[in-house]
Design brief:
Shape: elongated
Number of strands: 50
Number of helices: 2
Distance between the termini: 91 Å
Structural class: mainly beta
């Protein structure tokens, strides 16, 4: 019986002439040559264990359309191995027999439980329902270089660790399917255009760098990890409901929403410009050194914060020329944003673009400051409410007194609950550089001459880590 199936496969190849018709089982090492390309799948192909199907560079595999019923769709099943390594000049292509933007076949299915493997580079996979998929956790890292995925429902749905470099994903439902049990993604120098979603609900952290995300429904959803030096443009949502994400040195422009529902995340050194909503914060985050400009709403503080939570660090951002609000406080937290520049010196105009408890008494109040035109020299701080600025506090505020605040020359710090303790106090600027230090010598208070300091905001920290407080030097 094995002999009959194999001979049937060969007979179909010879009969076709200009193209090679293929279907059925592959029971021996087999090569699909460029000379006999294109290969037309008239039905499913199964590579049996212990055998390898090798595709030469430039080979085109076309799949006949059998209907949208998944039971009728053709596929390539790998119980053995397939090697599809093209070249830049001669990539390998898998596509529908007739030009189409639909999902006309199931794709490449790796039966990992039987030892199936797929190795590929410089290939193009189009028109599949499941893309490249596996039937169990794929513990080895799968590496794809110079690959293109177009018009697939899922581009890749492997349950495993995946490394992508110089790949392109265009018009896919999802570039990467959700992997809730295993697998992270390492991505460099890739291009994502007009996909429904690129990465969503991955169980392990992502590491994405030097890549572009353009014109999609949502670029990155519900992921953790790192995203660096990337561009997000004209997406409905660029970064959505990510927890523990590091987003650094990126450009997010002309999206419906640039960052939605940031929680326990670090957002640093980014340009967030010309979006409907620049940044929504729904949990403790570090937000520093960003340009958040010319959006409809620059920053929105969500009402989703739990009682007692606050933003961990919101410093040195430029919040300028956002057309509706520079900052919209959707929570009842009071916020100190005195270390952030609003690019204006008129406090009334700045206030008009801040939505807080002055506009809706259920919201918290927002303190702010004016700076010079270079956003480096603080001019005046406007305090609506007495709070500790920008970072979550752990001390009992009533047990530590800092006065006067702002201070010009002599600053006094009293430790009401530690009157006999020898406290060492350090003064840091907003970049974390140590500027001054002094000791209480067991007197229960410290006095520091802050006159050598430039005007600005500074942090007081005790040597035992028991508290952190902010004060301003005028």
């Amino acid at each position: 019986m094995r002999y009959i199936v194999l001979m049937s496969f060969i007979w179909l190849s010879q009969l076709s002439g200009a193209q090679t018709l293929v279907s059925g089982g592959i029971f021996a090492n087999t090569t699909w040559s460029l000379a006999n390309s294109p290969y037309v799948l008239t039905g499913p192909i199964v590579v049996f264990p212990g055998n390898t199907l090798t595709l030469e560079p430039g080979v085109v595999v076309k799949v006949q359309f059998k209907g949208f019923n998944t039971g009728l769709m053709s596929y390539i099943e790998l119980r053995g191995s397939m090697q599809a390594n093209g070249t830049l000049a001669a990539p390998i292509k898998f596509e529908a027999e007739l030009p189409s933007t639909d999902y006309t076949w199931r794709g490449i299915e790796i039966k990992s439980k039987q030892g199936g493997t797929f190795t590929g580079s410089n290939f193009e996979l189009n028109n599949t329902l499941y893309g490249i998929s596996s039937d169990k956790i794929y513990y080895d890292t799968v590496t794809f270089n110079q690959c293109t995925f177009k018009h697939n429902n899922f581009g890749i749905s492997l349950a495993g660790a995946i490394k992508l470099s110089n790949c392109t994903f265009i018009n896919n439902g999802a570039a990467m399917a959700s992997m809730t049990t295993f697998g992270g993604v390492d991505v460099s120098n890739c291009n994502f255009q007009n996909n429904g979603v690129c990465f969503t609900t991955l169980s392990n952290p992502i590491n994405v760098r030097n890549s572009q995300f353009v014109g999609g429904r949502a670029a990155i959803m519900q992921c953790t990890g790192k995203v660096e030096n990337c561009t997000f443009q004209q997406n409905e949502s660029a970064i959505e409901y990510c927890y523990g994400l590091e987003l650094k040195n990126c450009i997010l422009q002309q999206n419906g929403i640039a960052i939605l529902g940031a929680n326990q995340s670090t957002i640093e050194n980014n340009v967030i410009i010309a979006n409907n909503l620049g940044l929504e914060i729904s949990g403790p985050c570090v937000v520093t050194n960003n340009d958040i400009n010319a959006n409809q709403v620059g920053v929105k503080i969500s009402g989703a914060f739990e009682p007692g939570q606050t933003i961990q660090n919101f410093n040195n951002n430029r919040l300028c020329y956002n057309t509706q609000y520079n900052v919209e406080n959707g929570s009842d937290m009071n916020l100190g944003l005195e270390t952030n520049c609003f690019c204006l010196q008129d406090s009334a105009t700045i206030e008009a673009f801040i939505y807080d408890g002055y506009d809706d008494f259920t919201r918290g109040l927002i303190n702010f400051a004016t700076y010079d035109t270079t956003c480096t020299t603080l001019l005046t701080a406007y305090k609506k409410v007495q709070i500790n600025t920008s970072v979550s506090q752990v001390e009992d505020a009533s047990a530590i007194l800092v006065y006067p605040n702002p201070a010009n020359n002599l600053l006094t710090i009293e430790f009401l609950d530690k009157p006999n303790s020898a406290m060492l106090l350090q003064v840091f600027d907003v970049t974390g550089r140590l500027k001054l230090e002094a000791s209480s010598n067991g007197l229960g208070f410290i006095q520091i001459d802050v006159s050598p300091l430039q005007n600005g905001v500074y942090w007081l920290k005790a040597n035992d880590g028991s508290f952190a407080k902010c004060f301003m030097k005028n």
